[in-house]
């Protein structure tokens, strides 16, 4: 199997880098500046699970000629449309496009540009960022990719993918419940993103503030009201773990969207919070806390676009 990793940023660089480190056939599709940097310095991972440095295979869009079996799509939501145009020569009828993106909208965008068969469900859990030297810095030990066919049944192509992913230095799961897991991930992420974005603090800081825990649990209830109505209901096990994560004393946890916001970067508020809010509104639900978070994040985004 040959894997094309689109983008060598935090998630693409981390998982693609680990796969390359373990001898898998991985090629990174990058733009000119990142291509030059990778050729000069290699791809470097700084991680509590062990540092790594690889010299990856790199291509730019004009060099793509033929389909890959699998594509790990790791651009931010606002780079998705352009990157789908770029990868067109690399997409055949059976190519699995596995997104690390948060939210759900990208699945429709991929299906519309190519086909629903190409849009292969994937859930990515890692906390990573790029430093000033372009190195991938993993911020916590967890590192998990799950994938599967949307109907939950293993197929020859997902079996082959699983064989390719196993044993490459991170946790993987060929999941029979991948659609539920995608909705669970969005439940967690939209809550984390909305809560930390609106309150401008990490989970521990919000938990310690007066009214913090009540706010967090009320926000999560709004998210769940939408997910249960328009998506796939989460498992009880997930809910228990999520309530604990979101209210954990002293926890430094914050999502990648909050890290981007604090650093003044563009954020995925539309994909992570706005899209969920809209799906709820379309279903007749009122979710004032999510609406307030989206308004707040949209003000940041408008300022950021002008800057
Ligand atoms: N970071 C994290 O911890 C996690 C992030 N996620 C999600 O994963 C997704 C990706 O996030 P993340 O990896 O952090 O993002 P990054 O910004 O770190 O990386 C995205 C990379 O995509 C590249 N890129 C954009 N457009 C193209 C293109 N057309 N061709 C080639 N490369 C392109 C950018 O390269 P360039 O240098 O050229 O701009 C950039 O390096 C997001 O949806 C995020 O929410 C999910 C779980 C954890
Ligand atoms: C769930 C979490 C927080 C880690 O994977 C994430 O997806 C993010 O930071 O974007």
UniProtKB/TrEMBL annotation:
<protein>
    <recommendedName>
        <fullName>2-dehydropantoate 2-reductase</fullName>
        <ecNumber>1.1.1.169</ecNumber>
    </recommendedName>
</protein>
<comment type="similarity">
    <text>Belongs to the ketopantoate reductase family.</text>
</comment>
<dbReference type="InterPro" id="IPR003710">
    <property type="entry name" value="ApbA"/>
</dbReference>
<dbReference type="GO" id="GO:0015940">
    <property type="term" value="P:pantothenate biosynthetic process"/>
</dbReference>
<dbReference type="Pfam" id="PF08546">
    <property type="entry name" value="ApbA_C"/>
</dbReference>
<feature type="domain" description="Ketopantoate reductase C-terminal">
    <location>
        <begin position="178"/>
        <end position="297"/>
    </location>
</feature>
<keyword id="KW-0566">Pantothenate biosynthesis</keyword>
<dbReference type="GO" id="GO:0005737">
    <property type="term" value="C:cytoplasm"/>
</dbReference>
<dbReference type="GO" id="GO:0008677">
    <property type="term" value="F:2-dehydropantoate 2-reductase activity"/>
</dbReference>
<dbReference type="InterPro" id="IPR013328">
    <property type="entry name" value="6PGD_dom2"/>
</dbReference>
<comment type="function">
    <text>Catalyzes the NADPH-dependent reduction of ketopantoate into pantoic acid.</text>
</comment>
<keyword id="KW-0560">Oxidoreductase</keyword>
<dbReference type="InterPro" id="IPR013332">
    <property type="entry name" value="KPR_N"/>
</dbReference>
<comment type="pathway">
    <text>Cofactor biosynthesis; (R)-pantothenate biosynthesis; (R)-pantoate from 3-methyl-2-oxobutanoate: step 2/2.</text>
</comment>
<feature type="domain" description="Ketopantoate reductase N-terminal">
    <location>
        <begin position="4"/>
        <end position="151"/>
    </location>
</feature>
<dbReference type="InterPro" id="IPR051402">
    <property type="entry name" value="KPR-Related"/>
</dbReference>
<dbReference type="InterPro" id="IPR013752">
    <property type="entry name" value="KPA_reductase"/>
</dbReference>
<dbReference type="Pfam" id="PF02558">
    <property type="entry name" value="ApbA"/>
</dbReference>
<dbReference type="InterPro" id="IPR008927">
    <property type="entry name" value="6-PGluconate_DH-like_C_sf"/>
</dbReference>
<dbReference type="InterPro" id="IPR036291">
    <property type="entry name" value="NAD(P)-bd_dom_sf"/>
</dbReference>
<keyword id="KW-0521">NADP</keyword>
């Amino acid at each position: 199997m040959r894997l094309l990793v689109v983008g060598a940023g935090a998630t693409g660089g981390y998982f693609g880098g680990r796969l390359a480190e373990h001898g898998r056939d991985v090629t990174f599709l990058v733009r000119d500046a990142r291509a030059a940097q990778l050729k000069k310095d290699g791809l470097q991972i700084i991680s509590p699970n062990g540092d790594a440095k690889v010299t990856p295979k790199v291509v730019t869009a004009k060099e793509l000629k033929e389909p890959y079996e699998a594509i790990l799509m790791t651009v931010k939501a606002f780079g998705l449309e352009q990157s789908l145009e770029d990868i067109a020569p690399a997409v055949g009828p059976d190519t699995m496009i596995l997104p690390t993106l948060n939210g759900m909208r990208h699945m429709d965008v991929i299906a519309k540009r190519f086909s629903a068969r190409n849009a292969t469900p994937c859930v990515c859990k890692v906390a990573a960022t790029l430093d000033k030297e372009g190195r991938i810095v993993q911020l916590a030990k967890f590192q998990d990719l799950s994938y599967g066919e949307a109907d939950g049944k293993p197929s020859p192509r997902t079996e082959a993918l699983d064989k390719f992913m196993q044993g490459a230095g991170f946790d993987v799961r060929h999941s029979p419940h991948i659609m539920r897991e995608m909705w669970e991930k969005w439940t967690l992420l939209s809550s984390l993103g909305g809560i930390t974005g609106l309150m401008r603090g990490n989970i521990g800081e919000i938990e310690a503030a007066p009214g913090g825990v009540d706010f967090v649990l009320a926000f999560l209830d709004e998210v769940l009201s939408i997910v249960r109505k328009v998506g796939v209901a989460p498992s009880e096990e997930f809910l228990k773990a999520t309530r604990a994560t979101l209210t954990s004393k002293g926890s430094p946890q914050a999502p990648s969207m909050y890290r981007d916001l604090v650093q003044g970067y563009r954020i995925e508020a539309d994909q992570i919070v706005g899209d969920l809010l809209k799906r709820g509104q379309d279903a007749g639900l009122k979710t004032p806390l999510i609406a307030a978070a989206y308004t707040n994040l949209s003000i940041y985004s408008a300022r950021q676009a002008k800057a």
